[in-house]
From TrEMBL:
PANTHER family listed in its UniProt record: THYMIDYLATE KINASE, UMP-CMP KINASE 2, MITOCHONDRIAL
Principal place of residence: mitochondrion
Protein name according to UniProt: UMP-CMP kinase 2, mitochondrial
InterPro entries listed in its UniProt record: P-loop_NTPase (IPR027417), Thymidylate_kin-like_dom (IPR039430), UMP-CMP_kinase_2 (IPR014505)
CC terms in the record's Gene Ontology section: mitochondrion; nucleoplasm
Thymidylate kinase-like domain: residues covered: 256-436
Alphabetical UniProt keywords: ATP-binding, Coiled coil, Kinase, Mitochondrion, Nucleotide-binding, Pyrimidine biosynthesis, Transferase, Transit peptide
Top EC class of this enzyme: transferase
Family: Belongs to the thymidylate kinase family.
Catalysed conversion reaction: dCMP + ATP = dCDP + ADP; a ribonucleoside 5'-diphosphate + ATP = a ribonucleoside 5'-triphosphate + ADP; a 2'-deoxyribonucleoside 5'-diphosphate + ATP = a 2'-deoxyribonucleoside 5'-triphosphate + ADP; CMP + ATP = CDP + ADP
Organism of this sequence: Cavia porcellus (Guinea pig)
């Protein structure tokens, strides 16, 4: 390996190459990367000047990036600023790439991990989503990857990197540019561990990709989807019928939140009957029958759909609260917590810190008087789900299979502010839970 890399480095010292070994006309400066490991921790590394002295090693990196086998990095091109169309296209390419890397030969024998590229100190550059593919055996992965990437549209085509180790055990990343059927190596740099940034790399991107701060931001995403999702235009038409300036009526609005099988249906129905309240849900029934369509789309599209559903139900809340109390089965907090837990890789420690702006209620969305969060133990929730026998959504399957994802959703709920969630243990009997919720409503709304 050393005999292959050293001559390569000497060839890269020509006038077209910068000191970092990078072709300045083809690439941005080296970036940092965050690799999600099987235990949900993150390993951070950067690409270093080939002429620099050797660096210390993170033993986790050679285990995933080095031999035996071959490892490849695939990262979508950077999307900067407010280019909503580019974000949507990149997300669709990323989703299609993930589907292809999870099925068929030779990818079925490979290990797939989430990989993020980012530029410390350059928040406007945005995070680049991608994958680390580790093939423990065969030589045919390279050709299969070229075929998959060649089918991606040029502007959103992921970059392809190949990891190798030299005789001393140091790791290197060779980056390739793909033009039609041709491949050209554009850089070779040393892989070195770096400290984790103070905040997860995607946090600054959340308002433009998942937790939309206002109606216009979510609307812009669905506008980009109208050429390939006809129902997107129908959703937009309904949103445009809703007034932008809404005022709540004189009656209280209570939102019931919680994971599936925590008792939301029982509580919302019983409390609405006891108060003589109107019972609403988000997304509202006028778009609820399109959930399956949008649930199969990338997260940015799925979250835009649910965000706009909140604005539609807000119009219903404003009208209904002039006549009676209103109970709402899920609202903005659900949309935000699932988006955060999905977008932020790694474990609980990588969530946005408490009081981050991402936990704040949107300024242009009608605010409820009270938000109740129902919780049960994981064991009780699984037992209730098994008794229901209902078809699981993709997120519900993820909650069951991935305890870290469930914990990230629950912790995000607890960090919501203005309004915060009032937690109620829904494990006791039906009567005790209803009494606890009724007590909260009396104390907060009457």
């Amino acid at each position: 390996m050393a005999s292959r890399i050293r001559p390569l480095l000497r060839r890269l010292q020509g006038p077209r190459w910068s000191r970092s070994g990078t072709c300045s006309s083809a690439m941005a400066p080296p970036r940092c990367f965050a690799l999600e490991l099987p235990d949900c921790s993150l390993a951070h590394f950067a690409l270093e000047d080939p002429g620099a002295a050797g660096a210390h090693q993170d033993p986790r990196l050679p285990a995933l990036l080095g031999p035996p086998g071959r490892s490849f990095a695939l990262c979508a091109p950077a999307v900067t600023g407010g280019d909503c169309g580019a974000r949507v296209q990149a997300a669709r390419v990323q989703q299609q790439l993930q589907l292809q890397l999870r099925k068929g030969e030779p990818f079925q024998r490979c290990q797939l991990h989430r990989l993020l590229g980012y530029s410390p100190g350059e928040p406007a550059a945005g995070a680049r989503h991608g994958f680390l593919l580790h093939d423990p055996a065969g030589p045919d992965t390279w050709g299969a990857l070229l075929q998959v990437l060649g089918a991606c549209p040029e502007p959103a085509r992921p970059n392809l990197g190949e990891f190798e180790a030299d005789a001393s055990g140091e790791l290197w990343l060779r980056l390739w540019a793909l033009h039609g059927d041709a491949q050209r190596q554009v850089s070779c740099a040393r892989v070195v561990p770096v400290p984790a940034p103070p905040v997860h790399p995607v946090v600054l991107d959340l308002p433009s990709s998942a937790v939309f701060p206002d109606r216009d931001a979510a609307r812009a995403v669905l506008e980009e989807c109208t050429p390939f999702i006809p129902e997107a235009q129908a959703v937009l038409n309904l949103v445009d019928q809703c007034p932008k300036q809404l005022r709540k009526g004189q009656f209280p609005v209570i939102v019931i939140e919680g994971l599936d099988a925590t008792g939301k249906t029982t509580v919302t129905q019983s409390i609405s009957e006891a108060l003589g309240a109107v019972l609403l849900q988000s997304p509202p029934s006028c778009i609820g029958h399109w959930r399956k369509i949008f649930d199969d789309e990338p997260n940015i599209i799925r979250r835009a759909f649910y965000s706009l559903g909140n604005y539609i139900v807000a119009s219903e809340i404003a009208e209904a609260s002039t006549r009676s109390p209103v109970i709402v089965d899920r609202y903005w907090h659900s949309t935000a917590t699932y988006a955060i837990a999905t977008e932020v890789s790694g474990g609980l420690q990588h969530l946005p810190p408490a009081h981050d702006p991402v936990y704040q209620w949107p300024q242009d969305l009608l605010r409820p008087d009270l938000v109740v969060l129902l919780t049960v133990s994981p064991e009780e929730r699984v037992k209730r789900l098994q008794g229901r026998g209902l078809e699981k959504t993709r997120e519900e399957a993820e909650l069951e299979a991935n305890s870290i994802f469930r914990q990230k959703v629950e912790l995000s709920y607890r960090r919501m502010e203005n309004p915060a969630c009032h937690v109620v243990d829904a494990s006791p009997s039906r009567e005790e839970v209803l009494q606890a919720v009724a007590h909260l409503i009396r104390a907060s709304c009457y």
